[in-house]
Amino acid sequence: MPARRRKPLTLRRRESRAGLALVAPTLLVVVAVIGIPIVWTVVLAFQRVRLATLRRTGLFGEFTLDNVERVLNTPGFAETLWTTLVYSVGATAGSIALGLVAALVVRRPFRGRTLVRASMLLPYVAPVVAVTFVWQVMLDPQLGIVNDWGRRFLGWDTPVPFLSQESTALATVVAFEAWRYFPFAFLFLLARLQAVPGELEEAALVDGATPSQRFRHILLPQLMPVIAMLGVLRFIMTFNKFDDVYLLTGGAAGTEVVSVRVYEFLTARTDIGAAAAQAVVLAVVLVVFVLIYLRFFGRRVG
């Protein structure tokens, strides 16, 4: 019986195969760099693994829920989770608000606008080690310029240790995070503002609308999808932040976030299983918060 001749590939199938061939290397890199570490972290979260026994631990060893139970019952877990939530929400809202103000300021042409726009990106592009050091020096109780000006112009009797007392440390870290990442929101919001048709504002101006009315009824509705998207992105990024908090306070004075807690489990206790379980719990909590956010703002994000 003669072999059946294969039908020639259509143009669409040839394009699909070519597309898969082009995407395959990137997909393999993503799986190797992201997928495998995630799977290994989840596996370690359910095994009794310490730094000394890591080499002897197999991929499919003895699984247990002791790590998760220990993490959830460890004193301070609820407080750390609440601190992380306050830090994430405050820094996200602050960075978007500052970015919106900055975008509105440089929206109209003026002399030196290019230089001002470029300077606004400095907090975002500067090395985190450098900017945290600058903030530590500025806020130093003895040598910092903030306390010096506070005593000179505001009548402070004693210097304020912004980064070492619980009443101010968390607010200071939130302010730093909002300042450092407002350029991220600034770029998105400025791009959307420049795409708003000028005829809309001109018509409102002819109708006698005030600047606040034009912002509320014309600009803000145009910006809401971008703001909703920025809210999701910045919340996820801030919720997982480690370096900013650790470099500023080391997690002391009521600023211990979950990522710093994971680091302490891993380094101080050398308990890899508990650190992995803490990371898994962090991921689950983050997913829950993002789903709640998308439930109320999903249409605007879309």
UniProtKB/TrEMBL annotation:
Keywords from the named record = Cell membrane, Membrane, Transmembrane, Transmembrane helix, Transport
Q: Name one Pfam family in it.
A: BPD_transp_1
Domain ABC transmembrane type-1, chain residue ranges per copy: 81-293
Give the membrane topology, semicolon-separated if more than one.
Multi-pass membrane protein
Question: Which coarse location class describes where this protein primarily resides?
Answer: membrane
- The lineage's top-level taxon is Bacteria
Record-linked PROSITE patterns: ABC_TM1
Organism of derivation: Micromonospora echinaurantiaca
Q: What are the GO cellular component annotations?
A: plasma membrane
Instruction: Name the residues that span the membrane.
Output: 20-46, 85-106, 118-138, 169-191, 218-237, 272-294
Enumerate the Gene Ontology biological process terms.
transmembrane transport
The places in or outside the cell where this protein is found are: Cell membrane
The UniProt entry, under InterPro entries, shows: MetI-like, MetI-like_sf, UgpAE/MalFG_permease
Task: Tell me which family the UniProt entry assigns to this protein.
Answer: Belongs to the binding-protein-dependent transport system permease family.
The name under which this protein is listed is Carbohydrate ABC transporter membrane protein 1, CUT1 family
